[in-house]
Each structure stands twice: as structure tokens, then as C-alpha cells.
Amino acid sequence: MLTHTQITLCPHSSCVKVIYHPLMLKKYDRTPAGAEGRLESAVEILSSNPEYELIEPRSATKDEVLLAHTEDLYESTRHESEKSPGKLLFEMAGLAAGGAIMAGELAMKGEPVFALIRPPGHHASRDSHWGYCYFNNIAVSLLNLQAKGMISSAFILDFDLHEGDGNINILDDRRWIIHNPSGRGDGAFLQDAKRALDQSPDVDIIVASAGFDQYVHDWGENLSTDAYRQLGLLMHDFAMERCQGRRYGLLEGGYNYEDLGKNVLAFCEGLRGIRK
Fold it and tell me: Rounded to an integer, what distance in angstroms lies between the CA atom of residue 127 and that of residue 150?
């Protein structure tokens, strides 16, 4: 098991920025999302690749989180943390939300960004949460970009196995387009995602609720590793044509710990526009 991560400074202008904090390796709750060992394969494969730069996030402030959530939910998460392993839950949730904010801001420069963060967020609604989620990282990120006058619209591609009901609850007006692809097998799933992207109006940025539990050797028993590359490529092409190259992804599900790294890498390679 990894106990320390070497932060790699990328010498290339085309690097993918990977938002990650070493604390993310720690167990913070008793769910599959918060268990020890979940992120190690992804950290190992990305930190050893010179074309990926690992950047540590700051924690989101209370005001930033409250753009997406009620104060009651914020405080209840703080209280839940007192019973969590190492009392780390609240700190981890803040780092995940802060990492999502950083990812969105970096993506505004037209660079591909991936946030290797946990807890996931797409089941966290404005005033409730479930499904291993606490703060809605996607919503916190997008609403902070909006509050700073940087965007007024976005496409959210949520390819997690489970529908992101929290995304839908918080981002419930026309400026936010949310699509959860469906279909058995790579072909049908990718066709559904492409159709939605082709039919979308222009937006200011595209972001993925990047869940890897649709994987053929994970809970969904559905998608190959190459399908994640193709999803990244769909986002790359959409971003280049429709939103000035602005694209990023935030980790959601994915519970085959051994293969998570290669699936995340495949998605990031697609996000870069690498075609194989």
C-alpha cells in the first residue's frame, strides 16, 4: 500500500492536471468509497507518468459549500465526522469540494483536468445526502464558477453506474444540462452519450461525474477500459468544438480497486485527445 506520494511536476505544456491530496489515501468512513486501498492504483499510475501533474487542493470554505447546500447539511456532515474513522470525514469532504473548485478553475484555461478526489458527490442534494456522498462536488464547483462570473452554463456527463440524483436536485434549471448515458455494452452506451452531446446547445464548460463502476469487472459489468477512453474523447471533441476546450472530470464511483487506475488513465488519455 502507498503511504506517501511523490508530487510530479510536469515539464510539458500539454500535461493533465490531476487534483489530489495524499490524505485521500486514508480511510474516512466504512463504505466502499471510503475504504483503504481504493485510490492506490490510480495514484501509482498517474504519479509515475510524466505527462500528469499532481496538484494538492485546498479545502473548500463554508461559503463555497453553501452555494450548493444548506447550512443544516453542512453542520450535519461536521457532526457525522466525529464518529468517522480518525474523525477525517469532514476534512476529506472539504478537500474533495475544494479539489473540485480547483479543477473547474484550471479547466477554464482550456486544459484537461481530472480530480482524483473522494468522497464522491453526485448523490448529495441541497439538504440531504446518501450513496457514500456528503458534499456535491460537481455542484460546488460549477456554482462557484458561476458566482465568479466565469460561466453561465455547463454540460454534466454523469457516466457513473447510478443516476446522479444530487446533481439533478441542485442543478435543476436549463443552464445546466445533465445526461446519464445508458445502454448495455460499449457501443450502445457510447452512442447514447454521443447523441446527447450532439444534441446539446453550446455551453461554457463540460464536466464529467466520472464513475468507473460501469466497468465490466465492477458492479455494472458493462464497459471496457477502452470505453472510458472513448468517453474522454467525446468530451475532448465536444469541448474543442463547443466550449473553448474547457473540460474536466471528478471521480465518483468505481470499486474495482486494482483496475481503477488503468480506467482513470484511459479516461484522462481520452480527455487529452489521445486516440489509439
Answer: 26
Residue pair 93/243 in contact (Cβ under 8 Å)? The answer is no
Provide mean pLDDT across the span 91-118. Answer: 97
What CATH number does the domain containing 68 carry? 3.40.800.20
Question: pLDDT at position 173, please?
Answer: 86
Place of cell 464513475: 211
Average pLDDT over residues 55-61: 97
Looking at residue 87, what is its pLDDT?
A: 96
d(CA 122, CA 139) in angstroms, rounded, equals 8
Residue 51's domain spans which residues?
Answer: 16-272
Domain count, the chain: 1
What's residue 14's pLDDT?
A: 61
